[in-house]
Design brief:
There is one protein chain. This protein is mainly alpha-helical. The chain has one domain: MFS general substrate transporter like domains (Growth Hormone, Chain: A). 82% of the residues lie in helices and 0% in strands. It contains 17 helices and no strands. It is globular.
């Protein structure tokens, strides 16, 4: 197999099935989040309510993350992923019922709103297990020598789902309404479940089955905090997403600032992912392994600049382009971070390392949503977005200044060592 083959990972049938499952789930989840955002803000007209959506999801996701990582390392991965998808399906069906006028016609608005928050909370429980399970299954269906290429395609599919989901969500809110949009989301989860059945069960590589849960968790935490490359990558991305993410405030921009309605909302929501997809397809031909540390720092710095431009813009297409370029820089960050995690994590510890990563990075999306909603409530929407972008720039400068080893990070040596092991 060619060392620079941009389609190396796609030559494995199970990986293609895995990508199909991941696309269906990301499409469904991102579309569901958009539909919920729109419905909740339409009910409340309060920016803080958008932050509460993120908070309701992040509380269980963070609280259960380490325990979920332990379970993932102890259990068969395909079966665990099926249970996660089933859980998401139940939640989607519940939201489908909550947005059905015939069902909720006599129920007060507050009851509907709190019920939505409750289902989002249950979704956070599913999220705690979903990320580590997907990360662990990934490593069982492709050989180590194609991990970086597989990470690129997996991230690309994730971004494709993030593009199509919000765009279709915005369009369908306008065409068929929130209720039937939720019906499509439920159907997508069933498609993901059926597709996953084509992947056979996988062996459990953890030699310490039945290990005491607290000892297992300590081992996972110790490994992450003892591996500075992993710790630096996920910390940098966590802070950037926490302070620099303006996605949670897009309903406010679409409805009140730019005044572009649900279709414009879909375009705004999809713009970052379109930029990320372009970056990721390009990186399949031009890998990012050389000087990875400096590239990661530059990408996150560029992301912060884009957030400041978006926050200050009152012109729709300028806002779209700012979000588009933020997606391009975020795509670089995602690929490098995923490659670091895949190359530096032992097979028997993938669930626990992924769970720590989800606490740092995955949950920072929801915490960022809460932070954005809260700061928008306190200081105004535009000021909140600009403040977040500035905090991202400061974080990058501090990271680069205090960690020269991270600046000099190069992943080519790890790639060569993995090829020798095959």
């Amino acid at each position: 197999m060619s060392k620079n083959d941009p389609y190396a990972a796609l030559r494995f049938r199970e990986f293609n099935i895995f990508l199909g499952v991941r696309f269906a789930m990301v499409f469904a989840w991102s579309m569901q989040f958009v539909v919920i955002e729109w419905e909740v803000y339409s009910i409340t007209k309060d920016p803080l309510s958008l932050g509460i959506i993120g908070l309701m999801e992040v509380i269980p996701a963070v609280s259960l993350a380490l325990f979920a990582g332990h379970i993932v390392d102890q259990k068969e991965k395909r079966g665990l992923l099926m249970k996660c998808i089933l859980g998401f399906s139940v939640i989607s069906f519940g939201l489908f019922l909550l947005t059905w006028p015939r069902v909720v016609g006599d129920i007060s608005t507050h009851v509907v709103l709190y019920s939505i928050y409750f289902l989002v909370f249950l979704g956070g429980i599913v999220r705690a297990f979903l990320g580590p399970t997907i990360f662990s299954l990934f490593s069982l269906i492709v050989p180590k020598k194609v991990y970086p290429n597989a990470a690129t395609w997996s991230s690309s599919v994730w971004q494709m789902g993030s593009v199509v989901g919000p765009a279709i969500g915005g369009i369908l809110i306008h065409w068929i309404g929130v209720h039937w949009s939720m019906c499509l989301i439920f159907a997508c989860s069933l498609v993901a479940l059926i597709t996953l059945l084509q992947i056979p069960k996988k062996p459990i590589l953890n030699p310490k089955i039945g290990e005491n849960v607290f000892k297992s968790l300590r081992e996972g935490i110790k490994y992450v905090f003892g591996t500075r490359v992993i710790l630096g990558a996920i910390t940098l991305d966590m802070i950037a997403v926490l302070f620099g993410g303006a996605v949670a405030l897009l309903p406010i921009y679409a409805q009140d600032i730019l005044e572009v309605g649900p279709q414009g909302f879909g375009v705004l929501r999809a713009a970052p992912a379109v930029g990320a997809i372009i970056t990721m397809f390009t990186s399949a031909y031009f890998p990012l392994n050389k000087n990875a540390g400096m590239k990661l720092l530059a990408a996150v710095f560029g992301f912060g600049i884009c957030m400041i431009v978006f926050g200050l813009s009152s012109v729709f297409w300028i806002s779209v382009m700012a979000l588009f370029f933020s997606g391009m820089t975020d795509g670089i960050s995602m690929i490098i971070r995923q490659t670091i995690l895949q190359l530096k994590t032992p097979d028997h510890m993938r669930g626990r390392v992924a769970s720590v990563n989800s606490m740092f990075v995955g949950s920072s999306n929801e915490l960022g949503a809460f932070e954005s909603g809260l700061t928008a409530k306190l200081m105004g929407t535009v000021t909140a977005v600009v403040f977040g972008g500035c905090m991202t720039l400061i974080t990058v400068l501090l990271t680069g200044a205090v960690s020269p080893k991270f600046r000099k990070l190069d992943l080519r040596k790890d790639m060569e060592e993995n090829e020798k092991l095959e």
